[in-house]
Design brief:
- The protein has nine helices and ten strands.
- The longest helix has 16 residues.
- InterPro entries: AAA+_ATPase, ABC_transporter-like_ATP-bd, ABC_Transporter_VariousFunc, P-loop_NTPase.
């Protein structure tokens, strides 16, 4: 579970990227964060995982404050950033072992997880190649595998489907569903409204640093009668704000 309480972030003393935002990502739910370019989605996710510090407010992950108790808080989640170009000179298996060492994953458990995810993402044959030689989609898959290697209860994913081939995108979406069926939580940002509409339990709509809606799709439709698609509602809610 992620608890976000009144967080704000200002860049350069003038640009308010996030403005007093409060919401929860509950266990057993997939929450999609959607919004126009520059709305503040990535800034919010970077504050949740501790890359950026909020100017005010608090963030707790499974009860651990990301600022005052960062090591324990970071053990609770797996994070996939929006740029998969990391550790390019390592082989895929070296990167996964590095992530396993970082999170204290036993040899037996990491081998098991690498086997499972390698099959699901069709990456087993590429693990002994350098990440530098991977396509964008393959780099995205190895980063996802590394983030999930320690079986975290909370998944935080920034545009995780970008660059994935249809089969791998399907597998990751299925993994999200399986994860929340076990009573765990997923929050991900996306520009693909159809994915949010079909996959998520709740949506957080952000525009110009402010949370303009947080709740279920049914509630969103109830508050916007006459609009059937998430796309139409999204355009209506972010127009002119």
């Amino acid at each position: 579970m992620i608890e976000i309480d009144g967080i704000s972030k200002t860049y350069g003393g003038t640009v308010k990227a996030v403005d007093h935002m409060t919401f929860e990502v509950k266990d057993g739910e997939i929450t999609a964060v959607i919004g126009p370019n520059g709305a503040g989605k990535t800034t919010v996710l970077k504050m949740i995982v501790g890359i950026l510090a909020p100017d005010e407010g608090n963030i707790r992950i499974n009860g651990h404050d990301i600022v005052s108790d960062p090591l324990e808080a970071k053990m609770q989640f797996g994070f996939v950033a929006d740029n998969p170009d990391v550790f390019l000179r390592l082989k895929g298996i070296e990167y996964l072992n590095f992530m396993g060492d970082l999170y204290g994953v036993s040899t037996e458990e990491r081998q098991k997880q690498i086997e499972i995810m390698g099959d699901r993402f069709e990456m087993k044959e590429a693990l002994n190649d350098k990440i530098l030689s991977y396509s964008h989609g393959m780099r995205q898959k190895i980063v996802v595998m590394g983030a999930l290697l320690h079986s975290p209860s909370v998944w935080i994913l920034d545009e995780p489907l970008t660059g994935l081939d249809p089969r791998s995108a399907f597998e990751l979406k299925e993994m999200m569903k399986e994860h929340t069926r076990e009573g765990k939580s997923v929050v991900f940002s996306t520009h693909v409204l159809e994915v949010a509409e079909k996959l998520c339990d709740k949506v957080a709509i952000i525009n110009k640093g402010r949370l303009v809606f947080m709740g279920t799709l049914n509630r969103l439709r109830e508050e916007n009668p006459g609009e059937d698609s998430l796309e139409n509602i999204f355009l209506k809610m972010t127009e002119g704000l």
